[in-house]
């Protein structure tokens, strides 16, 4: 029972990160909530990573990603816009600044919609979640060099989209 309590506490502590990553990969809050719930259920049923030394956060992100990929494959779901992947931040209540921030946030969201799923994923893990290239590679189950090249392409595509240039999908 203490092992179950321990993993439940770890999952609870990671919920904000799981929600943020879920929103980035699913494109909307509702699907992200469902994905987080399914991830937590799978994790709790399994009782933990199973291997000593495996980081719980990376293990949970991998469960989440695999569940989402299974869902995408089975339902033939196409890419969607990351609705809430970026958090809005005000600057102390100045209305003009908040409006400007919201416009920029909408531009970034729109630009992210133009990115390939693999590029959105790597941006979410490295930029939003602050994961190292090594941890992102482990989570995505790809070589570290692939993470680095996807991230470079994602940043270039995002910059092009923000500058109004066509982005190749």
Offer a quick outline of the entry.
The protein has 7 helices and no strands.
Walk me through what this model shows.
The chain is an all-alpha fold. The chain folds into 2 domains: 2-75, RNA polymerase sigma factor, region 2, helix turn helix motif (Rna Polymerase Sigma Factor, Chain: A), CATH 1.10.1740; 95-162, Arc Repressor Mutant, subunit A. 72% of the residues lie in helices and 0% in strands. The protein is built from 7 helices and no strands. The model is unreliable at 77-93 (pLDDT under 50).
> What is the assembly state of the chains in this entry?
single chain
Please give the CATH class of the largest domain: Mainly Alpha
Helical fraction equals over 70%
Q: What sort of overall outline do the alpha carbons produce when their principal axes are compared?
A: globular
CATH homologous superfamily designation of the largest domain: RNA polymerase sigma factor, region 2, helix turn helix motif
Secondary structure category: mainly alpha
Radius of gyration: 17 Å
Give a short account of the largest sheet. none
Might you state the CATH topology name of the largest domain?
Rna Polymerase Sigma Factor, Chain: A
Query: What is the tally of helical segments?
Result: 7
Name the beta content range.
under 5%
List unreliable stretches of 5+ residues.
Answer: 77-93
């Amino acid at each position: 029972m203490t092992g179950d309590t321990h993993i439940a506490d770890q999952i609870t502590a990671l919920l904000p990160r799981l929600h943020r990553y879920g929103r980035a990969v699913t494109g909307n809050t509702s699907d992200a909530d469902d994905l987080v719930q399914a991830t937590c259920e799978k994790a709790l049923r399994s009782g933990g990573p199973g291997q000593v030394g495996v980081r719980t956060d990376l293990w949970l992100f991998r469960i989440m990603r695999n569940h989402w990929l299974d869902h995408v494959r089975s339902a033939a779901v196409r890419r969607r816009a990351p609705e809430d992947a970026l958090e809005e931040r005000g600057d102390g209540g100045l209305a003009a600044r908040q409006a400007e921030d919201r416009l920029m946030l909408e531009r970034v969201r729109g630009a992210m919609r133009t990115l390939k799923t693999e590029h959105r994923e790597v941006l979410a893990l490295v930029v939003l979640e602050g994961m190292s290239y090594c941890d992102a590679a482990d989570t995505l189950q790809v070589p570290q060099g692939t993470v680095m090249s996807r991230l470079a392409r994602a940043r270039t595509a995002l910059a092009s989209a923000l500058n109004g240039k066509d982005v190749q999908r």
